[in-house]
Specification:
Shape: globular
Number of helices: 6
Strand order of the largest sheet: 1-2-3-4-5-6-8-7
Order of helices and strands: HEEHHHEEEHEHEE
Oligomer: single chain
Number of strands: 8
Helix content: 25-40%
Largest sheet: 8 strands, mixed
Length: 196
Amino acid sequence: YSRVRDMLSTVSEPQRATAPTTTLDDSDVVLRDGSTVHVRATGPADVDGVAAFLGDLSPDARWFRFLGGGLRVERAARELVGRGTGLVAVAGPEETVVAHASFIPETRDRAELAVAVADAWQGHGIATLLLAHLAQLAEASGIATFVAWVHPSNRRMLQVFRDSGFPIKVRFEPGLLKIELPFELVRVADLPEAGR
């Protein structure tokens, strides 16, 4: 549980109690390597930045995120920004999107989760950081379980889930793993930090 706890301190106590509409205060976060990213909620103005981010992902990273090829990045960006609850991590003075994560409710207490991190930024704790922030927002909205579909060869994402501090349930589907992260058993505010 040492991975997510301190990250959650960037979300104020009143936000934890707000439901069903929740927001996240923008925050600057120092990563494991000492670099800094700015984490904030997505908005309509992020469509171009998210499209550029998706277009810059390596073919493997894009395939892992969408579990297929032939992605139309502009359309995907519009859908990602317009549906569910999304966060971006941006870096540099141009605020380049280096990661995107979101959840889309499936039922009143379950939501599908998806995360992608730019190739050059992988391994710095950004996915774990975004997962922690999304869990905070989801819990405040009454969501008790995240569901993620992951290709078995996507070892980095599987490791993020293992290291998150959430109990995980894994179900094998043809060519995919269905990962369930039930956080009603764990107080989200007690989860570990992403490790710097």
